[in-house]
Amino acid sequence: MFFKVKTSEEVQEILKGFKPVGMETIPISEALNRVLAKEIVSQEDMPGFSRSSMDGYAVRAKDTFGAADSLPAFLDLAGEVIMGKEPDGRVISGKAMKISTGGMIPDGADAVVMLEYCHSVDEKTIEVSRTVAPLENIIGKGDDFRKGEVIFKKGTVLRPQDIGLLAGLGIEKIPVYRKPQVGIISTGDEVVPIHQKPGPGQVRDINSYTLSAFCLQAGAIPVNLGLCKDNFEEMREKAGKVLEFCDTVWISGGSSVGTRDMTVKVLESFDGMELLVHGIAISPGKPTIIARIGSKAVFGLPGHVASAMVVAEIFLNPFLAVLSGKVLSSGNAHQSLQAVLERNVESVSGRDDYIRVKLCQRNGKYLADPVFGKSGLISTLVEADGLVKIDRNTEGLYKGQTVSVLLFRPVENEE
Amino acid sequence: MFFKVKTSEEVQEILKGFKPVGMETIPISEALNRVLAKEIVSQEDMPGFSRSSMDGYAVRAKDTFGAADSLPAFLDLAGEVIMGKEPDGRVISGKAMKISTGGMIPDGADAVVMLEYCHSVDEKTIEVSRTVAPLENIIGKGDDFRKGEVIFKKGTVLRPQDIGLLAGLGIEKIPVYRKPQVGIISTGDEVVPIHQKPGPGQVRDINSYTLSAFCLQAGAIPVNLGLCKDNFEEMREKAGKVLEFCDTVWISGGSSVGTRDMTVKVLESFDGMELLVHGIAISPGKPTIIARIGSKAVFGLPGHVASAMVVAEIFLNPFLAVLSGKVLSSGNAHQSLQAVLERNVESVSGRDDYIRVKLCQRNGKYLADPVFGKSGLISTLVEADGLVKIDRNTEGLYKGQTVSVLLFRPVENEE
Questions:
Q1: How far is the alpha carbon of B201 from chain A, nearest alpha carbon, in Å?
Q2: How large is the ipTM?
Q3: A237, A339, B143, B236: least CB-packed within 10 angstroms?
Q4: Is there a domain that residue B3 lies in?
């Protein structure tokens, strides 16, 4: 079978064709970073009543008009608003009620004068030395959200403040997409479990652990099937088992032509298998295979962990976003930053090259220093903070050029 | 007691004085985003043997010198390297062994010729049409890391590729700092549990949920003590209980002078309490209290969730990094990005103002649009992507100015 190597854009388009996994309902305490599977409509006004945003006195604004240090307004004290209670009384012209931050504005009042502009004259009278405007220092009923208003769209990824809003509206059970389950199979006759001391020619299983951690970071659940020999029957059996209950399957290994061909043969042995991608015009990561079996995507990833990780960052990350139901608004920003390249980097045209860079800051600017070393070395990934793409239509990037760095993970906040 | 309001810088300096929590040993499968409590030294060379990075033939490089399409070199086939096995034989001058990607380089060979530059002449002979240099297409023993080399410093936050490297070295038990435990107490006579329908003057408990989610996001463990009335005895008891087993305590509520004073009185009732901060020159978030009780920091946070969240982003985030033992190298980048401000924003000098902004992208640039609205509104936080600081020595920021946006959370990758 002849298969043209696909461009990154073609592959991204193919991956967008998959559907999100199903939904479930979870308690609010577990909702951080989960993805809403339904839009959320406010069932009430928030806040449910007008509140003071300051410590002070609830008044009728016009009673303070013209008030100043030299000409204070005198108001009769009509009691105090107790926190968490309905005010006992109302404010009529010439009156004021003491109120704390968050207290309920009494009927009749339309503003709050801050405490520091009020002075007690006697037990029953205060003087006000500042004019307040109507609604000043008041958070009105429904100022945050009104009953019936859409507060979150389907596909929103919940942050702490979003969870706070759901709590404020009394929404304790949250409808979210399930976390996608990812079956991970690591192949290769040379690979041994990590507790084992490798013999000559053997290496430990790096990929299962790297890809599992990658899944966790992306909000998915890794199902680690462990090692598999380069053997048709064994791979067929493991893939079949994991396809039954996982949402996608990632088979890593097979950078050699022989093992890659076998992965394709295994996939072809499933009914209705459609080979979508056999090779991508990127480096590293070219020998990537993507097939559809039923409604599920199965990936054959390069055996070199560094190549597998580049494919994961560039393709599996957005693919998991699709499966997770995340809606990334078009105006949304990338998890990337602009940096100035520290050296010239050559590239072969006809494929997108992803180079690994280390970031540092100088004079408030980010600098990106290419990490050199053979792409099979995991050290190049460990030293790097992110990737820079060299487009297939260019022959390289120049020192001093501003480039966009796709971050492996948000760099820590230092402040 | 008179207390001068402290600047942000003074507060950050105070918070750096606290010590990381203790350590524990965890399995590698749970190590994502955990912080190493010890440096890690490689106990072996990685890789442990020289490997081929291509499918091809292992040869002596000098046997190929001068080889070209028009003048191929002829080599005798001396067998094949089986994956995961020690090569059966060695390569002497004039010989070649077939090898797959990842295979062990046989003794005598010092380079690999890619498959596509080799052609079988007969069963025992190949012709090579390209010169290879010594070490070409070989990953040498120890190229990644050498035995005895420090591979991770104490304080490193583990990413997927870092976990891959630990797996590759057979390190299954990882020494990390414990996750800090944060006791969270939400106070206020007006606050009711979220399952309850608030009566007049009452609101649901937003802060416990927001701060708990914030802790989870920062890699800490929230211990939610629930609601507490504005009552000395109750607050004293809850704070005392949680101080026994948590690493830090956060008491939110008390934006009114009265409740703030009570929080201070409760803290003062503990032996050896030292009031470190009583007010910070920032807005929102000024009425923040920080005390040291024993070795633990106790925070009194503003009751308005929007103010509490700003304090959390600016101070509690780096504080949790300190407790977690994270080492943020000085060259490290912020979780922030540069954006062009969309409107003028005024500010009061003498305090650092944090405005909330919404980001969008236009022509490859980020634009930051200030979210207006009273700071007590949670909607302003929900609409925002991050914060922009207006330094206390400036009177505002101008439309068109480039500003640094501290992101609430990494914005999603769209690619």
A1: 5
A2: 0.93
A3: A237
A4: no
